[in-house]
Amino acid sequence: MEIVYREEQGLFRLTSGNMEYGIGIVDGQYVGHVYFGKRIEDDGYTYLMRTGEAPYTPSANKRETGAFMDSFPFEYSVWGRGDYRESCLMVKSPEGYRGCELWYEGYRILDGKPRLSGLPATFCKDPEGGDGKTLELYCKDKVLGLRVILRYSIFADSEALLRSVELVNEGDKRVCLEKVLSACLDMDSGHEQVLTLNGSWGRERHMERRDLAYGKQQVSSVRGETSHQEQPFMAVLDQNADQDHGEVYAMHLIYSGNFAAQVEKSQYDSLRMTIGIHPEGFSWMLKPGEHFTAPEAVLVYSDEGLGKMTRTFHDLYRNHLIRSPYLHEKRPVLLNNWEATYFDFNSDKLIAIAREAGKRGIEMLVMDDGWFGCRDSDNSSLGDWFVNEEKLQGTLKELVDRVREEGLLFGIWFEPEMVSPNSLLYRQHPDWAFAVPGRDPVQIRAQYVLDLSRPEVRDYVFEAVANILRSADISYVKWDMNRQLTDVGGLCMGAERQGELFHRYVLGVYELQERLVTEFPGLLLENCSAGGARFDPGMLYYSPQIWCSDDTDAIERLAIQEGTALLYPLSTMGAHVSDCPNHVTGRVTPFTTRGHVAMAGTFGYELDITRISREDQKEIEEQVKQYHQFQPLVREGDYFRIASYSENHLYDCWEVVSKDQRQALVTYVQVLARPNYHSRRIRLKGLREDGWYRLETEDLRMGEYGEGLAQPQNGGVYSGRLLMRGGILVDPMKGDYTSRLFHLVSVDHPGSRGTKGQG
Fold first, then answer.
1. So what's the pLDDT on residue 43?
2. Which sequence positions are flagged as catalytic?
3. Which of 345, 380, 406, 688 is 20 to 30 A from 503 in CA distance terms?
4. Structure confidence at residue 444 (pLDDT)
5. How far apart (Å, rounded) are the C-alpha atoms in residues 395 and 380?
6. 103-106: long-range contacts at Cβ-Cβ below 8 A with a sequence spacing of 24 or more?
7. CA 108, 113, 114, 118 torsion-angle sign
8. Per-residue model confidence (pLDDT) at position 712
9. pLDDT value at position 704?
């Protein structure tokens, strides 16, 4: 890990591991992008900016400054001075003029990494900052008096690059920021594709690859949340790149609101990637002396395909973004009553579920929607966060104590950001909801959105939630958000500041969750937004897990969880076993397969355990045992994608390998059975080539060597080299939607068949 400045070349080099990032200063003014990729170990590469070619630099050819501006690889592009590619910064002066020009003024190299005020961001693990370094580049528009600080941070244990931007009004007049993106990356084009994660409710984060063409290709959200439809992520990759080969350049935004991620191919076959807050509906009035900080962007380069990119993101988020005490701790196996009862429950019904759940090894009961106000349907009471004691047949504390007597922890559901028109809160404070005067506000799920830009609204929401948590022994909160933002008007905001509301809303959410985890540091917080509409890195800063999707169908979850795991550690994905026929798709899937798929995330249940078959109840006991056995590996290990059902339309397969490479868990799902076929060969990944591994299956109830594994050799002991180059053979299984787990543990040598390695 090193940041150095070579003054003679005007070159900044940032290196960590095998990654290098180069920044050049041209004509003493312009901050240019030089290089991002595999480590070079050489200072002499500023020629890559092509400043020795026509149109040359303005100091050598001032008459063609415009041509220079439209082709130079800027580190942070601005609008209005001749760069017609996508800009990162657009500023309007008090007189209404738009335009900006940044002059480089200096730099500072810091040990550690500054926090971003009011925003989630990565951090050093070392309190003294010894595991991180930051470069600050100072630029200024002398006409506007606007200072722009470009920050670049690296960590000793990561090959990711972190970028953020801070703007300071050092002039004597206010300016209006109309666009402030977080990062820009200029590079040459070859034969690339664009990778994004797209979808909708019930089918979030499906991977999509498409050819890169001239012009702009964008994914974005203006819904007030990162959304079901798009993820704040984009990657440009070689056309033939796969999991293990090819170059990948990726950007991911640590933010939970409106965003835009874009790549543009120019007339000169250059590429510009940008990411940041979506400029639509955004503006920010910056008075003299005020600061504005843009969200942090994560940049990852991989020369070993998507797999290395994935593991870089996983390790970065585990080591430098998630703060929860549950990060490296076992999460309790929970049962959520939503699909079990919906709104139709009382204390007796919940206790009956808890009692049966406890017998099967489940460790927590979560009471979902319907416990407050007059909430017997989703038509009322959001905002009225007081317990419906008639429905619960007593106080919340009495219910929690009864659940605790059954040996289970207790969790509870909230939707704090919303208000029902039919609620005491709305009748008392209709002005607390977003609205545009003269317009009837749009309802979604019979809800309006509270204006969290207002401190009195945030204070009410926090105290409403905190008072419930103070009243009983509650271990877990599911924080839900079930609609997008519309009618974003603040009755207490002046006309010039209405464009700040989307961003101020997100800052309000962050403040609320920061207050929550500060007062209740031992709380397990799980974010949710009608399923996975707010599954983003910003939320991980406050909660170690996020509900992945409201679609719990195991086969649908294959694509959802594959796309999610492309960026996020498995331990962040809320995944439950639900009843069949599935409540979303109507599909019937074997109970075992549902368990295997859910075990690739945080594990739990979404069903009425008192009404399922004895066979399934018994299966829960076995699944809970498997979860306890494998969850440390799933939580901490390296993730490898072996096969994708989304691509082959037949089967799915992934693997998790411990950091010390002494054990691995392979999950294989046969989606469609085929007649008259031989076994399928599965080549494993991430093992030690010179190591030896025994297939341990006795805990999986799969027979001596594992039903489904063809022709075990040497008593089930294999070399790592054989497992990765030759692979294992998996027999066809009878029936669609069947699955198998294969657990491998290292042994000293092939003869030590009774010796297990350390897992």
1. 86
2. 480, 550
3. 380
4. 96
5. 21
6. 103/29, 103/139, 103/140, 103/141, 103/142, 104/25, 104/28, 104/29, 104/30, 104/31, 104/137, 104/138, 104/139, 105/138, 105/139, 105/140, 106/137, 106/138
7. positive
8. 54
9. 35
